[in-house]
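I hope you will forgive my troubling you with a question about protein structure. You will find the record immediately after this paragraph.
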Amino acid sequence: MTEQSGSKGTSGLGPFNRRHFLMAAGSAAILPSVLKARASQTSEPKTPANNRINLGVIGMGWQGPGNTKAFLASDDCQVVAACDIDKDHLEAAVKMINDNYGTEDCKGYHDYRELLAREDIDAVMIAVPDHWHEVLATEAARHKKDIYSEKPLAHTVAEQQSIVRAVEENNIIWQMGSWQRSVPNFHKAAEIVRNGLIGTVTRVEVGLPAGDSDYEDVQKLAMAKLAAAGVMAKSLAEVVEGSKGWDLLVTDPPAGLDYNTWVGPSKMGPYIRAQSHKSWRWNYNTGGGQLMDWIGHHCDIAHWGLDFDNSGPSEVEGSGELPPSGAVWNAAPKYRFELKYPRGITMTIAGGYPDIKSGTKWIGSEGWVYVDRGKFDASNPAWKEGKSLPRELRKVKLYISDSHQQNFLDCIKTRQPTITPVQVGHHSAIPGHLCLIAMLTGRKIRWDVQTEKIIGDPEASKLLTREYRAPWKMS
C-alpha cells in the first residue's frame, strides 16, 4: 500500500491501544470494534452508542465505487480508508470519498494488509475479482472486521468453506452482495412461494445471462488489432495461447497496475487487457463466466423462496459451449443444467436458452410466480397488486431489508444476522460451482449436502479446490 495510517486520537498509547483504552475506561461511547470483542463472550446482543462505524473499502475498480457511494450516503458510517492495486483506481476512490466529506481523512493503501491492521477500522467492503475472495475475507475475519463482500462467495467450494469457517470462528457480521433480497418485488415473490400460494413446488427455472459482455470494447479493439495484422478471429474465445493472435494481444501491464499482485494466488500468465479489469470473469483462471457472476442473484432468490438457504441439490448434470481451455476467454457463453433438490423439486439453470427467461420462476401444483429485475408476473392476477402480500396471507414472514448496505450497518450495531449472511452466500453459490464442474467433466455430479462432498468421483472432487500460486496460501 502507498500510505499507512494508524488509529487517531489515542494512537499515541502504543500497545495500550484505542480499543483497550475504551474498554478499560468503561467508556459509554462503545465503538463497534469494542462491541465485537464483547459479543464473542456473550450471547446477548449489544448495541453501540451513536458512533459512526469506521469502514475500509477494498477493490475500487467497478462494483466497489457503487457500493462505496451507498455507504457514503449513510450517517451511520465513515469511510476512512480505501485500497486498490491500480494506482488510478485508488486515487479516484480516495478523491471521491474525501470530496464527499469535504476532508482529507480517507487514506489510500496499496496493500490490503496495512488497511486491515488498523485498529480503528470496524468493517470492510470487499469488491475484488473472485480469485482473491478467500485470501482477503479470511484475513479480514481474523482481524475481527465485519464484512460486506461481493458475490459469488469465492472461486471454489473449498474456498467458500474456508470463508464460512473464518466468519463463524471470529463472530463476524457478513453481508453477501446479493442485494436482490433487499428489493420489494423479489421479497414478495419469495413470500408467495414460502406461504404455499402456488401449492407444492415441483419445478424452478433460473435464467442467467449468456455470452461474454464486451466491457469497454476490449474484444472489439482486440479483434481490430488482429485483423490489421492479418489474423482472422470472430471472438476472443478463438484466440488461444501460443498462437500469433495471442502473442499480438500480450502487452506490458499499465504502469499504475501491480499486475503480479492482481494475479495473486491464480496461475500467472502474460498481461492481456481483455483478461484484466472488468473482463476477468470470462476466463476460469480468475472468474466463473456469466454462470458464477449471476448464480448469487437469481439462484439465491430461488433458494429463498424454497427455504433452501441451508440446503442444496443432490444431483447436477448439463453442458455448455466451452471454448478451448487455453483461449483468452474460455468461459462458456451458453449453458444449461438440470438439478435435483429435496422434496422432489427440479431446477433448470440456463443461459442462452429462450425457453428459460432471465430471473427466477417457481412452478407449483396451484400456480406459478416469476420475478426479475423490474419485473413480476404470476398465474394469479391478484398477486400482482401492491408491493407486498396482504397481511392475512403472510403466515410466513421473510426478513425485510429496504437497503442492503444499511442492513449491514444496522446488523453491525445489533450483532444480529444480515439478510444474506455468509452461510446463505455459500449455499446460493454451490449449485453454480457444481454446474461448472459437471460441464468441465462432462459427467453427472452427485452431491452430499451434509458433508459437502462429491460422491463417487475423485477426479471431479479435485475441482472443488485449486492450487495456489506461491507465496499465497488458502487458510
